[in-house]
Specification:
The protein is an alpha/beta fold and about 230 residues long. It has two domains: about 70 residues, Aspartate Aminotransferase, domain 2; about 120 residues, Aspartate Aminotransferase, domain 1 (Alpha-Beta Complex), CATH 3.90.1150.10. Strands 4-5-8-7-6 form a five-stranded mixed beta sheet. The radius of gyration is 20 Å and the shape is globular. The relative contact order is 0.12. It binds pyridoxal-5'-phosphate. Pyridoxal-5'-phosphate (PLP) binds next to loops. The site of pyridoxal-5'-phosphate (PLP) has 7 residues, from loops.
């Protein structure tokens, strides 16, 4: 949001609607309409479904005319969700709070670890006190979410090598699922402007403490689920 300089005379007056993509925060962590937004959007493909098997979305508005226009656009476009999608979304919502609680806990653990890692030059997670919007996040969010991004020392090739070396964390664009996923965002067409060595990690609900304990042991056990902690460069 910006402010017009003193004496500024607009030649066109138009009411702008403020829309918020609330996908990363989820409705449990942030309520955009209560904070003043006109439109809140949620990719239900992500946290609401939570299992990487749903393509859907949610738009929430406060204005009745806008709601009618959106309903009409949806009908004309034929974008009405099918019964399976609706079932998966409703089933996902039932465990959203539990999944989010666990994944956020994991995310905080990993973010703190990444922030201390010598081969990570920058870790971005709103739960870290070092994050530029940490204070605002504390005021505005009920939880800091599950998305971390970090820059790997050594540039794009080093970041690609980190992804290629992971066995349990899926290399994928999607996010917000029970399993952790990672992606070098600048490798995606249209995202080349992002830092080349930035990896975006969507933290899942896997056990974090157990692998942490095991990673301290000199004899890693085979045949059991290990976990993301053994895979993050240390
Ligand atoms: C923040 C955010 N919003 C919206 C979307 C779009 O979601 P969908 O795949 O449900 O169209 C994405 C997809 O990656 C996203 O990351």
């Amino acid at each position: 949001m910006s402010f017009a300089p003193a004496g500024f005379q607009p030649t066109i007056t138009r009411k702008l609607a403020l829309g918020v993509d609330n996908t990363f925060a989820t409705p449990l962590n942030q309520r955009p309409l209560a904070l003043g937004a006109d439109v809140a959007m949620q990719s239900a493909t992500k946290f609401i479904g939570g299992h990487s098997d749903l393509l859907s979305g949610v738009v929430t508005v406060r204005d009745a005319n806008l709601l009618a226009a959106l309903r009409q656009a949806r009908e004309l476009a034929g974008a009405t969700p099918g019964t399976l999608e609706t079932f998966l979304a409703v089933r996902g919502v039932r465990t959203l709070a539990l999944r989010l609680e666990r994944a956020q806990c994991n995310a905080m653990t990993l973010a703190e670890r990444l922030a201390r890692h010598p081969n990570v030059t920058l870790t971005r997670y709103p739960g870290l006190a070092s994050h530029p919007t940490h204070a605002a996040a504390r005021r505005q969010l009920k939880g800091f979410g599950t998305i971390i991004s970090f820059d790997v020392r050594g540039g794009a090739s080093a970041a690609d090598a980190v992804c290629a070396g992971l066995q349990l964390i899926q290399h994928a664009t999607s996010l917000g699922a029970v399993e952790s996923t990672i992606e070098r965002r600048a490798s995606i067409p249209g995202q080349e402007h992002l830092p080349p060595a930035l990896l975006r990690l969507s933290v899942g609900i896997e056990a974090v403490e157990e692998p942490l304990d095991r990673s301290r042991s000199s004899t890693p056990q085979r045949g059991r689920m290990t976990g993301k902690q053994e895979e993050i460069p240390r």
